[in-house]
Protein backbone atom coordinates (compact mmCIF):
# COMPACT_ATOMS: atom_id res chain seq x y z
CA UNK A 1 0.00 0.00 0.00
CA UNK A 2 1.37 3.43 -0.92
CA UNK A 3 1.92 5.64 2.12
CA UNK A 4 1.24 9.37 2.14
CA UNK A 5 2.37 12.24 4.29
CA UNK A 6 0.44 15.27 5.55
CA UNK A 7 3.30 17.49 4.41
CA UNK A 8 2.07 20.07 1.84
CA UNK A 9 2.83 19.20 -1.76
CA UNK A 10 5.72 20.97 -3.53
CA UNK A 11 3.16 23.09 -5.37
CA UNK A 12 1.92 24.44 -2.04
CA UNK A 13 -1.71 23.71 -2.91
CA UNK A 14 -3.76 23.31 0.29
CA UNK A 15 -5.42 19.98 1.02
CA UNK A 16 -2.93 17.93 -1.06
CA UNK A 17 -0.43 15.46 0.30
CA UNK A 18 2.95 14.36 -1.00
CA UNK A 19 3.42 10.72 -2.00
CA UNK A 20 6.46 8.98 -0.54
CA UNK A 21 8.82 7.52 -3.11
CA UNK A 22 9.29 3.77 -2.69
CA UNK A 23 12.48 2.78 -0.91
CA UNK A 24 15.29 1.81 -3.26
CA UNK A 25 16.27 -1.85 -3.34
CA UNK A 26 19.78 -1.90 -1.75
CA UNK A 27 20.83 -4.66 -4.16
CA UNK A 28 19.86 -2.63 -7.23
CA UNK A 29 23.32 -1.58 -8.39
CA UNK A 30 24.56 0.26 -11.50
CA UNK A 31 26.18 -1.31 -14.56
CA UNK A 32 29.91 -0.69 -14.12
CA UNK A 33 31.19 -2.95 -16.89
CA UNK A 34 32.34 0.01 -18.99
CA UNK A 35 34.39 1.73 -16.31
CA UNK A 36 38.18 1.85 -16.47
CA UNK A 37 39.70 0.68 -13.19
CA UNK A 38 43.09 2.03 -12.20
CA UNK A 39 45.16 0.39 -9.46
CA UNK A 40 47.82 2.51 -7.76
CA UNK A 41 50.36 0.17 -6.29
CA UNK A 42 49.48 -2.31 -8.99
CA UNK A 43 52.89 -3.97 -8.89
CA UNK A 44 52.44 -5.06 -5.24
CA UNK A 45 50.72 -8.29 -4.27
CA UNK A 46 47.32 -6.82 -3.37
CA UNK A 47 47.28 -4.45 -6.34
CA UNK A 48 48.33 -7.16 -8.80
CA UNK A 49 45.68 -9.49 -7.41
CA UNK A 50 42.88 -6.95 -7.75
CA UNK A 51 44.03 -5.99 -11.26
CA UNK A 52 44.08 -9.65 -12.28
CA UNK A 53 40.58 -10.32 -10.93
CA UNK A 54 39.01 -7.26 -12.53
CA UNK A 55 40.65 -8.00 -15.86
CA UNK A 56 39.47 -11.60 -15.63
CA UNK A 57 35.93 -10.26 -15.07
CA UNK A 58 36.19 -8.25 -18.30
CA UNK A 59 36.97 -4.85 -16.80
CA UNK A 60 39.48 -2.58 -18.51
CA UNK A 61 42.37 -2.20 -16.06
CA UNK A 62 45.41 0.07 -15.80
CA UNK A 63 48.00 -0.57 -13.12
CA UNK A 64 50.14 2.29 -11.87
CA UNK A 65 53.57 2.44 -10.31
CA UNK A 66 56.19 5.08 -9.59
CA UNK A 67 58.13 3.32 -12.34
CA UNK A 68 56.41 3.10 -15.71
CA UNK A 69 58.74 0.24 -16.66
CA UNK A 70 57.75 -1.81 -13.62
CA UNK A 71 54.08 -1.16 -14.30
CA UNK A 72 54.37 -2.29 -17.91
CA UNK A 73 56.35 -5.37 -16.92
CA UNK A 74 53.75 -6.36 -14.33
CA UNK A 75 50.92 -5.72 -16.78
CA UNK A 76 52.57 -7.98 -19.33
CA UNK A 77 52.83 -10.76 -16.75
CA UNK A 78 49.16 -10.40 -15.80
CA UNK A 79 47.88 -10.39 -19.39
CA UNK A 80 44.14 -10.05 -19.92
CA UNK A 81 44.55 -6.67 -21.59
CA UNK A 82 45.92 -5.03 -18.42
CA UNK A 83 47.92 -1.87 -19.17
CA UNK A 84 50.81 -0.46 -17.18
CA UNK A 85 51.56 3.23 -16.66
CA UNK A 86 53.19 5.70 -14.32
CA UNK A 87 50.96 6.58 -11.37
CA UNK A 88 49.92 9.99 -12.72
CA UNK A 89 48.94 8.56 -16.10
CA UNK A 90 47.06 5.71 -14.46
CA UNK A 91 45.08 8.13 -12.29
CA UNK A 92 44.27 10.46 -15.19
CA UNK A 93 43.03 7.71 -17.51
CA UNK A 94 40.90 5.78 -15.02
CA UNK A 95 37.28 6.28 -13.96
CA UNK A 96 37.74 4.51 -10.62
CA UNK A 97 41.13 4.47 -8.88
CA UNK A 98 41.96 1.84 -6.26
CA UNK A 99 44.70 2.83 -3.82
CA UNK A 100 46.67 -0.30 -2.93
CA UNK A 101 50.02 1.20 -1.96
CA UNK A 102 51.95 0.32 1.23
CA UNK A 103 50.80 2.31 4.25
CA UNK A 104 54.25 3.88 4.59
CA UNK A 105 53.88 5.55 1.20
CA UNK A 106 50.14 6.28 1.37
CA UNK A 107 50.20 10.00 2.18
CA UNK A 108 53.11 10.85 -0.10
CA UNK A 109 51.56 9.02 -3.06
CA UNK A 110 48.18 10.72 -2.70
CA UNK A 111 49.68 14.16 -2.17
CA UNK A 112 51.63 13.80 -5.42
CA UNK A 113 48.47 12.84 -7.36
CA UNK A 114 46.02 15.40 -5.95
CA UNK A 115 45.43 17.06 -9.32
CA UNK A 116 45.11 13.82 -11.30
CA UNK A 117 42.64 12.38 -8.77
CA UNK A 118 40.41 15.47 -8.62
CA UNK A 119 36.85 14.46 -9.48
CA UNK A 120 37.71 10.75 -9.52
CA UNK A 121 36.05 7.98 -7.53
CA UNK A 122 38.88 6.77 -5.27
CA UNK A 123 38.70 3.43 -3.45
CA UNK A 124 41.17 3.19 -0.58
CA UNK A 125 42.03 -0.38 0.49
CA UNK A 126 45.12 0.38 2.56
CA UNK A 127 45.42 -1.15 6.04
CA UNK A 128 47.61 0.76 8.53
CA UNK A 129 49.28 -2.12 10.39
CA UNK A 130 52.35 -2.64 12.48
CA UNK A 131 54.15 -5.93 13.14
CA UNK A 132 56.22 -7.12 16.08
CA UNK A 133 57.06 -10.41 17.79
CA UNK A 134 53.44 -10.74 18.92
CA UNK A 135 52.11 -10.42 15.38
CA UNK A 136 50.08 -7.82 13.51
CA UNK A 137 48.41 -4.87 15.24
CA UNK A 138 46.38 -1.91 14.04
CA UNK A 139 47.78 1.59 13.79
CA UNK A 140 45.59 4.68 14.20
CA UNK A 141 46.41 7.49 11.76
CA UNK A 142 45.96 11.06 12.98
CA UNK A 143 42.92 11.41 10.70
CA UNK A 144 41.34 8.24 12.12
CA UNK A 145 41.96 5.82 9.25
CA UNK A 146 43.75 5.51 5.93
CA UNK A 147 40.49 6.30 4.11
CA UNK A 148 39.95 9.45 6.16
CA UNK A 149 43.53 10.48 5.50
CA UNK A 150 42.83 10.05 1.78
CA UNK A 151 39.72 12.22 2.06
CA UNK A 152 41.75 14.99 3.73
CA UNK A 153 44.55 14.80 1.16
CA UNK A 154 42.16 14.60 -1.82
CA UNK A 155 39.46 17.21 -1.11
CA UNK A 156 38.25 17.20 -4.72
CA UNK A 157 38.04 13.42 -5.06
CA UNK A 158 35.14 11.15 -4.03
CA UNK A 159 36.82 8.87 -1.51
CA UNK A 160 35.43 5.48 -0.53
CA UNK A 161 36.96 2.48 1.26
CA UNK A 162 36.76 -1.20 0.28
CA UNK A 163 38.68 -4.42 -0.56
CA UNK A 164 40.55 -4.54 2.77
CA UNK A 165 39.97 -8.17 3.75
CA UNK A 166 41.05 -10.01 0.62
CA UNK A 167 43.82 -12.56 0.41
CA UNK A 168 46.47 -11.51 -2.09
CA UNK A 169 47.35 -15.19 -2.49
CA UNK A 170 43.83 -16.12 -3.59
CA UNK A 171 43.48 -13.02 -5.76
CA UNK A 172 46.57 -13.91 -7.77
CA UNK A 173 45.98 -17.68 -8.05
CA UNK A 174 44.70 -18.50 -11.59
CA UNK A 175 43.48 -21.89 -10.29
CA UNK A 176 40.99 -20.15 -7.96
CA UNK A 177 37.79 -19.47 -9.91
CA UNK A 178 35.75 -17.94 -7.08
CA UNK A 179 36.64 -15.94 -3.99
CA UNK A 180 33.70 -16.40 -1.64
CA UNK A 181 33.79 -13.32 0.55
CA UNK A 182 31.99 -10.09 1.29
CA UNK A 183 33.58 -6.69 0.69
CA UNK A 184 32.76 -3.99 3.22
CA UNK A 185 32.21 -0.70 1.37
CA UNK A 186 32.25 2.68 3.10
CA UNK A 187 31.74 6.21 1.84
CA UNK A 188 29.84 9.46 2.12
CA UNK A 189 27.82 9.16 -1.09
CA UNK A 190 25.47 6.22 -1.60
CA UNK A 191 25.81 6.62 -5.37
CA UNK A 192 29.58 6.16 -5.04
CA UNK A 193 29.34 3.18 -2.68
CA UNK A 194 26.83 1.59 -5.06
CA UNK A 195 29.44 1.78 -7.83
CA UNK A 196 32.07 0.16 -5.61
CA UNK A 197 29.64 -2.56 -4.50
CA UNK A 198 28.86 -3.26 -8.15
CA UNK A 199 32.57 -3.49 -8.95
CA UNK A 200 33.08 -5.98 -6.10
CA UNK A 201 30.25 -8.04 -7.54
CA UNK A 202 32.07 -8.31 -10.85
CA UNK A 203 34.55 -10.69 -9.21
CA UNK A 204 33.16 -14.22 -9.03
CA UNK A 205 32.08 -15.11 -5.49
CA UNK A 206 32.34 -11.59 -4.09
CA UNK A 207 29.57 -9.35 -2.83
CA UNK A 208 29.85 -5.68 -1.90
CA UNK A 209 28.07 -4.70 1.32
CA UNK A 210 27.49 -1.09 2.41
CA UNK A 211 29.10 -0.71 5.86
CA UNK A 212 28.67 2.96 6.74
CA UNK A 213 30.43 6.27 6.29
CA UNK A 214 34.17 6.88 6.24
CA UNK A 215 34.22 7.56 9.99
CA UNK A 216 33.72 3.79 10.39
CA UNK A 217 36.70 2.86 8.22
CA UNK A 218 39.13 2.44 11.12
CA UNK A 219 37.32 -0.65 12.43
CA UNK A 220 37.28 -2.22 8.98
CA UNK A 221 40.97 -1.53 8.36
CA UNK A 222 41.93 -2.73 11.86
CA UNK A 223 40.11 -6.04 11.47
CA UNK A 224 42.81 -7.10 9.03
CA UNK A 225 45.15 -7.55 12.01
CA UNK A 226 42.73 -10.15 13.37
CA UNK A 227 42.51 -11.88 10.01
CA UNK A 228 46.30 -12.05 9.82
CA UNK A 229 46.24 -13.85 13.18
CA UNK A 230 43.49 -16.20 12.02
CA UNK A 231 45.33 -17.06 8.83
CA UNK A 232 48.64 -17.67 10.59
CA UNK A 233 47.04 -19.91 13.22
CA UNK A 234 44.99 -22.00 10.80
CA UNK A 235 47.25 -21.71 7.73
CA UNK A 236 44.30 -20.30 5.78
CA UNK A 237 43.31 -17.39 3.56
CA UNK A 238 40.19 -16.37 5.46
CA UNK A 239 37.84 -13.58 4.42
CA UNK A 240 34.50 -12.38 5.79
CA UNK A 241 30.83 -13.14 5.26
CA UNK A 242 27.99 -11.01 6.64
CA UNK A 243 25.06 -13.23 7.65
CA UNK A 244 21.31 -12.65 7.22
CA UNK A 245 21.70 -10.54 4.08
Helix and strand sequence: EEEHEHEHEHHEEEHEHEHEH
What characteristic shape results from the CA principal axes?
A: globular
Write down how many β-strands occur, each being a DSSP E stretch of 2 or more residues. 12
* Percent helix range: 25-40%
- Side by side, the strands of the main sheet go 5-4-3-6-7-10-11-12
The largest pleated sheet is described as: 8 strands, mixed
Radius of gyration (Å):
20 Å
Approximate strand percentage: 15-25%
User: Structural class, please?
Assistant: alpha/beta
Kindly state the mean pLDDT as a whole number?
93
Summarize the structure in words:
By secondary structure, the protein is α/β, with parallel strands linked by helices. 34% of the residues lie in helices and 22% in strands. The protein has nine helices and twelve strands. It has helices at residues 45-56, 68-78, 87-93, 106-112, 114-117, 146-153, 168-172, 190-201, 217-234, and strands spanning 4-8, 17-19, 36-40, 60-65, 83-86, 96-99, 121-124, 129-132, 135-138, 158-161, 181-187, 206-210. The strands form three sheets. It has an eight-stranded mixed beta sheet with strand order 5-4-3-6-7-10-11-12. The chain has a two-stranded antiparallel ribbon with strand order 1-2. Strands 8-9 form a two-stranded antiparallel sheet. The longest helix is centred in the C-terminal third of the chain and has 18 residues, at 217-234. The radius of gyration is 20 Å and the shape is globular. The two termini are 24 Å apart.
